[in-house]
Amino acid sequence: MQYGYFDDEAREYVITRPDTPYPWINYLGCDDFFGLFSNTSGGYCFYRDARMLRLTRYRYNNVPSDAGGRYFYLRDVAADGSVDVWTPSWMPMKSELDRYECRHGMGYSRISSARKGLAFSQVSFVPLKDKCEIHNITLHNESNANKNIDMFSFIEFCLWNANDDMTNFQRNFSIGEVEIEGSRIYHKTEYRERRNHYALWAVNVPVEGFDTDRQTFLGLYNGFDHPQVVFEGQSKKSIASGWAPVGSHHIKVKLAPSESKTFVFVLGYCENPEDQKWAGPGIINKAPADALLAQYGTPEAADKALAALNTYWKGLLGRFTVSAEDKKMARMAGIWNQYQCMVTFNMSRSASYFESGIGRGMGFRDSNQDLLGFVHLVPERARGRILDIAATQFPDGSAYHQYQPLTKRGNNEIGSGFNDDPLWLICGVAAYIKETGDYGILDEKVPFDNNESLADTLFVHLKRSFYYTVTNVGPHGLPLIGRADWNDCLNLNCFSKTPGESFQTTANFESGVAESVLIAAIFIFVGPDYVEICRRTGRADEADHAAKAIETMIGAIDAHGWDGDWFLRAYDAHGKKSAAKSAKTERFLSSRTVSPLWREWDLTTDARRKRLIPSRNILTRPTALCFYSRRTKITILS
Amino acid sequence: MQYGYFDDEAREYVITRPDTPYPWINYLGCDDFFGLFSNTSGGYCFYRDARMLRLTRYRYNNVPSDAGGRYFYLRDVAADGSVDVWTPSWMPMKSELDRYECRHGMGYSRISSARKGLAFSQVSFVPLKDKCEIHNITLHNESNANKNIDMFSFIEFCLWNANDDMTNFQRNFSIGEVEIEGSRIYHKTEYRERRNHYALWAVNVPVEGFDTDRQTFLGLYNGFDHPQVVFEGQSKKSIASGWAPVGSHHIKVKLAPSESKTFVFVLGYCENPEDQKWAGPGIINKAPADALLAQYGTPEAADKALAALNTYWKGLLGRFTVSAEDKKMARMAGIWNQYQCMVTFNMSRSASYFESGIGRGMGFRDSNQDLLGFVHLVPERARGRILDIAATQFPDGSAYHQYQPLTKRGNNEIGSGFNDDPLWLICGVAAYIKETGDYGILDEKVPFDNNESLADTLFVHLKRSFYYTVTNVGPHGLPLIGRADWNDCLNLNCFSKTPGESFQTTANFESGVAESVLIAAIFIFVGPDYVEICRRTGRADEADHAAKAIETMIGAIDAHGWDGDWFLRAYDAHGKKSAAKSAKTERFLSSRTVSPLWREWDLTTDARRKRLIPSRNILTRPTALCFYSRRTKITILS
């Protein structure tokens, strides 16, 4: 079955039928505001943290799947009074469409459809720097008759904390609050109490009416596919008080043959300083909403914001372009892998259609690795990320395995003990310096354990990372695995018979015996980067000292990590060899040499252009490097 | 709008239309297995713990509301080939019905409906002692023509841990496992790894086919209201592997005019000893399933189990019956309040349509109070509960505010510091002894903090409870409130500016100043029970000592807790009076005297029957006692 194709020229993936086997989504947003957007306009958005500051409600693993998003219901009333209600993004009504197309582009998506002479277009994106989604809706009369249309928008608000929102009903059925002013619907739950922010769902034209109470809009026991208000054709101006606050505009649209009209919907997040929360008793201060909407009051303004986003992405992808004999290789390395790396950098797997956004936050290991694929795109953001990550490191060099993007604090629930983690900080910092030459970052003061009083330079963080591995070795001189190495499922010290208990967080056996050959390999893979950093910053003695530690580790691998044919994988908590001979373990390719980019660092820019092997930066998983470089000739053009 | 009525004779509430403003539910189950069952067959079931061992998936706050349950789809194929698909419980298809009725009775519910000459009846209950729901389905042909019907059952399995089930998709989309044998569908996710239990969804007749993969059954992007398999009329024998395991039987039913057929569906929970998990490689040991199903193989056997349940409830409610001039009073006190007290005892508010079953477990305070309304029904279970609760008490007399029903361990997340909690243990134990005369419970050894090495007698637990209040007093000699007193929202020491942070679990201000007059009142309300227990168990010195402490507390209330017109409510963390004069606080009625049931304890049974005031046991909230007793004459008949 063919569901779509790549449009390389437009840098878009084009989905040609709505009923994809699973929702195919795009990630909107480049900075702090993000939206997950499926090919049928499903999904949700949040500000900075998918758990703590979620604007719209979304039900994972739902029936029907992907029910919930930014919906537009069209009620097309013909001259004879016959009524046709449909949803142009196919879902939630699964409307039969005469045309359908969804284009997922760089930070935006465009759904185009048509039914019975009425064409619909929705361009959805998060503008640069602003905290909102824009949905630019165009209706076009392709028929020969006048069209009378009632359009109803629909979103469902999340009461901010997405986890509480789906578990604590005793509370959250009682707290929903909204405020309405003209065409603007404000979601202000908890604003009276401890929040200084609200959400906004607005359209740039006058409305016939609105609804903010879900049950009023949908009717009893109705799904999103049969909202009572839409089928009755008249909004009820409901004001949510508790239960489920939603946002729906009712707009009357008259279209002559060939006429088009465009509407700009804005779904935004607004904050006020604590002392400027109120405009009057119980009336929220709308200044930030005014400022936000002032920028997107017309279709032209919204188009301009989209053009700026396009320019931004053109610039980003212009830094590293790829031509290859294999068109798919060029497309992947030149466009989609870089796009995906940026998404990964932004979300660090915290929110997708498989990560519910409430579970984990950002990974220490992951986020460092993500840098490799991202650092050439926006190095200054990579720099900020490195400092955030390093601040969650413990004074002994170990690290919280995860941290919350909003608070930037280590996640106590999962804790520490993933003994490969510290090494990835060296890997990430080295990648950043290789790309930027910014050795100054090494002198930045960074807290340990988010505690300013424990702050020291980033270089000291790297040093602690390095020696954490050196000093935490087992009987064979190989690194202790702790809870896991790169393979989170290799829990040599974690034994649990309790159903549902996480192997990652269960009490550690602390055998003092279980050793990971893979961590040893990572050590001799990133260790030379640390040595090189020392050398290049006038720390020759430390470089020599570290180099010796690497040699010692290589010795340990040779003596105890090599089985004659293959490297061992590990020693378990009982000292037993894991994956001896019988299992095929990856050989450690090129890991004993300093990675080539250091050598080229001192060459001219021109010379760098001539490199014929890819930077590790292309790929988030460095071990895949050799595999790629041998199969495909890649030329760096800019 | 009239949605139903009470049938006092049958002890049932009769719902006469399915589209109630909110799902109206019954609680099935008396022991360890429980089902929440709405008037349209929505809801879910679990074994012992709604969070840890949930059998079926349920989505709270869903759209449509209450979508998900035990569903039966009927596909009625007429002689001319025309097809009528409908759901006799109305939801999920919202089928138009010629008749509809739901009767919620004592531990069972009965849905009856009809459409186009086909009558349907569903009797759902949890049999005594067994770990299953039974759904007895009868189809009756009321038409003059033969009927050819395809019946499809449908449930959706939860992957046991209900919280993980709705958050951790990276994992749970990959782990679903089933096994099918004839008419039995086994849900065995994680059984291979750490679980020793599985779920069973079976019917007592041969099936045409089955489905266990949700998407196969429903089709892409379909809701429960339009399952593809049903509309196509043929099951696909899908075997779930990951994604969403469901259970659907496909049964062909032929009915002559006036003919009826009955089918017994069993939804059960089965456990195996660790060393008897397997019948063969990868094949689960089905012995417990065999044993379970052997009891419910025929409609007659299922009827017998229902009759036993009816007898059980008749016995329970026969212990305390009420005749009153006010029929509603008699109905409430004689039937529904007692029924509700049993439900509350079983669930302690941990699962309802407003408590998601994953949030809180059982309350220390709540569970003690629940005893008051339950103790006369099944005293031996009340006894067990008291010992469970007491085991979560800390050695200093304070207590975990909540504990998990499955593990019976204190809940660390919410912790301690609700300073009224300890006193309710005295209240609950006193109620138990008054009802049973079982002073022996005071000699039971009970751990502190679930630690056997800290165990001491239950009497010592009561003593520590009593003196926890005595020794934790503030500047006015009134009890320190800690995090809260009976009013969880009166957080005089808990200040938080962080949105979403719980006032109950945020770091305690620990002013050492905030005092609760209400805790003082609770103390002098339950304190005399402690004194009386001492006296009746030969602890005269301790009785005198405790009586003096009560007098001291009364003195503190009179001196510092009385404002001239009203009692104060509290002193806050800054020593400021709360609710002085301006606010109306409840007067402490009859709290200074020993409660009358002690005095009557020594009278003959006959004399007890003549009591004209209700026991506190009727009501879960003792303060409501006086209110009731003054308005209504209640006669205890047995």
Describe the structure.
The structure is a homodimer of 638-residue chains. Chain A is an alpha+beta fold. The first copy, chain A, has a domain at 4-271 and 286-315: Beta-galactosidase, Chain A, domain 5 (Distorted Sandwich), CATH 2.70.98.40. Chain A is 28% helix and 24% strand. Chain A has a ten-stranded antiparallel β-sheet with strand order 1-2-9-10-11-12-19-16-15-14. In chain A, strands 6, 7, 8, 13, 17 and 18 form a six-stranded antiparallel β-sheet that branches. The first copy, chain A, has a three-stranded antiparallel β-sheet with strand order 3-4-5, with no helix packed on it. Chain A starts with a strand and ends with a strand. At the A-B interface, loops of A face helix 3 of B.
Distance between the termini of chain A: 38 Å
- Structural class of chain A, by secondary structure, is alpha+beta
What's the overall geometry of chain A?
elongated
**Which regions of chain A are unreliable across 5 or more consecutive residues at pLDDT < 50?**
582-596, 599-638
| Number of H- or I-type helical stretches of chain A | 16
CATH fold title of the domain at 4-271 and 286-315 in chain A: Beta-galactosidase, Chain A, domain 5
Quaternary structure: homodimer
Please count the beta strands of chain A (DSSP E, at least 2 residues each).
30
**Major beta sheet of chain A, specifics?**
10 strands, antiparallel
Provide the spatial order of strands within the biggest beta sheet of chain A: 1-2-9-10-11-12-19-16-15-14
Which range does the strand content of chain A fall in? 15-25%
Within CATH, the superfamily of the domain at 4-271 and 286-315 in chain A carries the name Glycoside hydrolase, family 65, N-terminal domain
Specify the helix fraction band of chain A: 25-40%
CATH architecture of the domain at 4-271 and 286-315 in chain A: Distorted Sandwich
> Average pLDDT across residues of chain A?
88
Radius of gyration of chain A: 27 Å
Largest interface between protein chains, with number of residues from each side? A-B, 50 and 51 residues
